[in-house]
């Protein structure tokens, strides 16, 4: 049997003895801190492939203290959401893209690939069981976290021969408590997130571990996030903590090209496709921070916004680069940001018809 | 109370119901695959600091599926050994250096620091309990793995508010089954391990995760390890998989300077100190791969060797850079490598008196 091939037919279900109380006040959910009753788990064993898929009560994973994920960071994950439409349907947004990216991450981390179609089916089954956990209030959603961790209990540095694939679900509140609100970010000068040749394009623990220190320093200075520059020339724009970044310069919408060091965001991809369909000039290219500053000085920097599953579109109101503080859009949300936000959230919550296949119905 | 401060007085001991059988054939131990009866565990909780230190039976750690170490790689570790001297004493080699480096890693990863003196005391206590597990045959030792993992069960990307510090012990066989044997390594051209501004100087999962793919490709080509180049100019030598690297060029012994992207090895540091005390010319500086190739062409590249806890000193017999294959030392071990190996292992196994404080006796 080929590495990564699955030997599964159906998904076992282990019923919980009792269910948790659902959150009372969905506006206070926050992000990623409470979890639903069930999780999906399957195991990988060398020679057997992925096996024993099961939906079972959310609970601790017993891990050998020498499990490789705890020492060598051999772990990958995904992040997506389930949305409740006004008519009660539960929707996913381009979920195949997440499983495709999961496998790209697996490849970089020497983790056996998963069967994308099976994982989507299993996720749909899990979300259907947990449908009552999908929040009801506007802009709240059920955050979905699939992840794979290396479980072999050995201390030699090599790829593990066993893994867990797990999916947990977390009802999460609206990202913007009081509507779309521009954030302040600064350009990071000391720390580097990832460099070409590294694993920046993969969604794997180490990239986030590397970002904690810069994020902590940004928070102390009351900035929401940092804008990463490339690790080679320390000049080209990469991305923000958990978002890709776009600039509207004159009549061009620019976002850094994918060159191996940034995450290929699914919101980024969708935004590019939407804007092109609207007839906007969109460019994926190298973009130096000094080009942005120059555009700002000339009055050409019209908008700046981040894109990601959590915030969908996040307008940037202030961008600080060393001593230079760039105020963008005068505290207002620009027209491109607003249109993207409305369109993407419209599609996600089933209010707007998107391109074919973007919206996947889990159940009614 | 200050972050990271400890509230501990004494270490609890939970006796195992039964002890495992000790390995029959110590020459077949391999590395890091069997573990002793006990492990050391302590917990960190925000507001309380490190608490509840306990020595208890080796066994699974129950981790929340959302524990941050499983998603964001917030984890650091150390690697050291306990050696059995001919007269029965159990010795550690410069253990304070490991705990100092552990705290350096903690700092980079936003993990609360540990009390170094307490951790050394706890380690000594654990090793003393497990003294019978320290191998008896020459060149075998008890590998010691202290590590810290983030345990908070939340999916927001920020530093965890709770951690485990764990120490596990693994009896390990001689690194060289048939005496010091030169290895083949190649210069990595596609992948990068770490870049300045990143976390290359810390002993943390992500750095090893990033190296798996290159290591896998090297193994397929029958090379033992890869030699990493810097991520910026892709020209300056960094280190090998789990070793620092030295070159003897003419009368100079050169090793890359510590500039944030490589691990500051304790064997490296010890080797530098020993060689300086022998009156050798040692330099920590930038060293380009083309300078090494030029030295080779001129017949000046006399030795190349790696240093690390696992192999102590590992002579490099072949270094491949693109199409250029450099055969070093004609399959023989050079005089500097040999003297370093003999001296370091002599000190480690208590046969040779080293500089004050290098050898720490755990028990007799
Ligand atoms: C580093 C990073 N960049 C960008 C993104 C945006 O990706 P997506 O639009 O797929 O959510 C994320 C995750 O959400 C991220 O973690
Ligand atoms: C990446 C790396 N470099 C170098 C070394 C050598 O360090 P030390 O001599 O402290 O064992 C190690 C670990 O052993 C390592 O993992």
UniProtKB/TrEMBL annotation, chains A, B:
Q: Which Gene3D superfamilies match?
A: 3.30.470.10, D-amino Acid Aminotransferase, subunit A, domain 2
Provide the cofactor list for this protein.
pyridoxal 5'-phosphate
- Kindly give the SUPFAM superfamilies that the UniProt entry links to this protein: D-aminoacid aminotransferase-like PLP-dependent enzymes
Q: What is its EC number?
A: 2.6.1.42
The record ties this protein, via PROSITE patterns, to: AA_TRANSFER_CLASS_4 (PS00770)
UniProt entry keywords in alphabetical sequence? Amino-acid biosynthesis, Aminotransferase, Branched-chain amino acid biosynthesis, Pyridoxal phosphate, Transferase
Q: Which domain of life is it from?
A: Bacteria
Q: In which pathway does it act?
A: Amino-acid biosynthesis; L-valine biosynthesis; L-valine from pyruvate: step 4/4; Amino-acid biosynthesis; L-leucine biosynthesis; L-leucine from 3-methyl-2-oxobutanoate: step 4/4; Amino-acid biosynthesis; L-isoleucine biosynthesis; L-isoleucine from 2-oxobutanoate: step 4/4
Question: PANTHER family from the xrefs?
Answer: BRANCHED-CHAIN-AMINO-ACID AMINOTRANSFERASE, SUBGROUP IIII AMINOTRANSFERASE
Q: What is this protein called?
A: Branched-chain-amino-acid aminotransferase
Q: Please give the organism.
A: Bittarella massiliensis (ex Durand et al. 2017)
């Amino acid at each position: 049997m080929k590495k990564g091939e699955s030997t599964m037919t159906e998904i076992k279900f282990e019923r919980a003895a009792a269910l948790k109380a659902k959150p009372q006040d969905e506006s206070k959910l926050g992000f990623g801190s409470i979890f639903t009753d069930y999780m999906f788990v399957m195991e990988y064993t060398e020679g057997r492939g992925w096996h024993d898929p099961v939906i079972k009560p959310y609970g601790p994973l017993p891990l050998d203290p020498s499990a490789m994920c705890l020492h060598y960071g051999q772990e990958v994950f995904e992040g997506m959401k389930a949305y409740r439409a006004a008519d009660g349907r539960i929707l996913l947004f381009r979920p195949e893209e997440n499983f495709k990216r999961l496998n790209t991450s697996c490849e970089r981390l020497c983790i056996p690939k998963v069967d994308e179609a099976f994982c989507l089916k299993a996720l749909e089954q899990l979300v259907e069981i947990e449908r009552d956990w999908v929040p009801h209030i506007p802009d709240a959603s059920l955050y979905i976290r699939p992840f794979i961790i290396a479980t072999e209990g050995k201390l030699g540095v090599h790829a593990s021969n066993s893994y867990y694939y797990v999916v947990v679900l977390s009802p999460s509140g609206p990202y913007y408590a009081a509507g779309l609100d521009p954030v302040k970010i600064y350009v990071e000068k000391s720390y580097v997130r990832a460099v070409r040749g590294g694993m920046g394009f993969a969604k794997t623990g180490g990239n986030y571990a590397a970002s904690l220190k810069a994020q902590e320093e940004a928070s102390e200075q009351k900035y929401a996030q940092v804008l990463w520059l490339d690790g080679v020339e320390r000049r080209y724009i990469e991305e923000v903590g958990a978002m890709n970044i776009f600039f509207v310069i004159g009549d061009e919408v620019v976002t850094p090209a994918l060159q191996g060091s940034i995450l290929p965001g699914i919101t980024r991809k969708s935004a590019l496709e939407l804007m092109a369909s609207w007839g906007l000039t969109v460019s994926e290219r190298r973009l130096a921070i000094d080009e942005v500053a120059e555009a700002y000085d000339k009055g050409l920097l019209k908008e700046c916004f981040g894109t990601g599953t959590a915030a969908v579109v996040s307008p940037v109101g202030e961008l600080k680069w060393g001593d230079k503080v760039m105020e963008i859009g005068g505290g207002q949300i620009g027209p491109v940001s607003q249109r993207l936000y409305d369109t993407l959230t419209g599609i996600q919550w089933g209010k707007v018809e998107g391109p074919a296949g973007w919206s996947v119905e889990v159940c009614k």
